[in-house]
């Protein structure tokens, strides 16, 4: 990331909205924004598939195809339409082929893909694809339940709304596999809404 350009752009933005970037309270704002953007966009150029592949271990014969579910993995990302954060939880399920993945590695895959300008729909699809390709998994399902500041803090200000999206590959993309995975996710937040409802997060508002 080009920190100098980010700081210069933030300074220009403050001028554009009519404030004085040289007043004491704002003197360090450009640097602080650059620091936060370095975190928000740390996934730029990171190969999430390689993270999954490097974290894989060989599975035993009896483990092949058994469903693994990790619930309530917290994440944050940045909406690419408004550059406002969206924050939520992910429920990740996969049916192993010949490889298993460390549970902590799953969260690193999610974080790498989330740490770039994103749309929630694409985030789920990219996480599912990275896990599927990195492990050569029989199937992957990713449920994301997130609150978008472009909805809660602007426009209609629907502070109580959240968006649920579902992405699936392989054996977990068909009705039976998807149903089993969602049943195991069970009482997790948003699980009751993952029956195919489309996303609606005000991206074009």
From TrEMBL:
<dbReference type="Pfam" id="PF01227">
    <property type="entry name" value="GTP_cyclohydroI"/>
</dbReference>
<feature type="binding site">
    <location>
        <position position="79"/>
    </location>
    <ligand>
        <name>Zn(2+)</name>
    </ligand>
</feature>
<feature type="binding site">
    <location>
        <position position="82"/>
    </location>
    <ligand>
        <name>Zn(2+)</name>
    </ligand>
</feature>
<protein>
    <recommendedName>
        <fullName>GTP cyclohydrolase 1</fullName>
        <ecNumber>3.5.4.16</ecNumber>
    </recommendedName>
</protein>
<keyword id="KW-0547">Nucleotide-binding</keyword>
<dbReference type="InterPro" id="IPR043134">
    <property type="entry name" value="GTP-CH-I_N"/>
</dbReference>
<comment type="pathway">
    <text>Cofactor biosynthesis; 7,8-dihydroneopterin triphosphate biosynthesis; 7,8-dihydroneopterin triphosphate from GTP: step 1/1.</text>
</comment>
<keyword id="KW-0479">Metal-binding</keyword>
<keyword id="KW-0554">One-carbon metabolism</keyword>
<comment type="similarity">
    <text>Belongs to the GTP cyclohydrolase I family.</text>
</comment>
<keyword id="KW-0862">Zinc</keyword>
<comment type="subunit">
    <text>Homopolymer.</text>
</comment>
<keyword id="KW-0378">Hydrolase</keyword>
<dbReference type="InterPro" id="IPR018234">
    <property type="entry name" value="GTP_CycHdrlase_I_CS"/>
</dbReference>
<dbReference type="InterPro" id="IPR001474">
    <property type="entry name" value="GTP_CycHdrlase_I"/>
</dbReference>
<dbReference type="InterPro" id="IPR043133">
    <property type="entry name" value="GTP-CH-I_C/QueF"/>
</dbReference>
<keyword id="KW-0342">GTP-binding</keyword>
<feature type="domain" description="GTP cyclohydrolase I">
    <location>
        <begin position="7"/>
        <end position="184"/>
    </location>
</feature>
<dbReference type="InterPro" id="IPR020602">
    <property type="entry name" value="GTP_CycHdrlase_I_dom"/>
</dbReference>
<feature type="binding site">
    <location>
        <position position="150"/>
    </location>
    <ligand>
        <name>Zn(2+)</name>
    </ligand>
</feature>
């Amino acid at each position: 990331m080009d920190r100098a350009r980010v700081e210069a752009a933030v300074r220009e933005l403050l001028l554009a909205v009519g404030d004085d970037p040289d007043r004491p309270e704002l003197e360090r704002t450009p640097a602080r924004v650059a620091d936060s953007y370095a975190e928000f966009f740390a996934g730029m150029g990171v190969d999430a598939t390689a993270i999954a592949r490097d974290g894989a271990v060989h599975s035993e014969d009896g483990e092949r195809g058994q469903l693994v579910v990790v619930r309530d993995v917290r994440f944050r990302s940045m909406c690419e339409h408004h550059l406002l954060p969206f924050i939520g939880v992910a429920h990740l399920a996969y049916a192993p082929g010949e490889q298993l993945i460390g549970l902590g590695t799953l969260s690193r895959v999610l974080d790498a893909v989330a740490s770039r300008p994103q749309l929630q729909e694409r985030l789920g699809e990219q996480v599912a694809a990275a896990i599927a390709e990195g492990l050569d998994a029989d199937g992957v399902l990713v449920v994301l339940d997130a609150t978008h500041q472009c909805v809660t803090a602007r426009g209609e200000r629907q502070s109580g709304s959240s968006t649920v999206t579902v992405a699936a590959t392989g054996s977990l993309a068909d009705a039976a596999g998807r149903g089993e995975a969602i049943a195991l996710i069970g009482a997790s937040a948003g699980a009751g809404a993952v029956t195919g409802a489309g996303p609606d997060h005000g991206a074009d508002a």
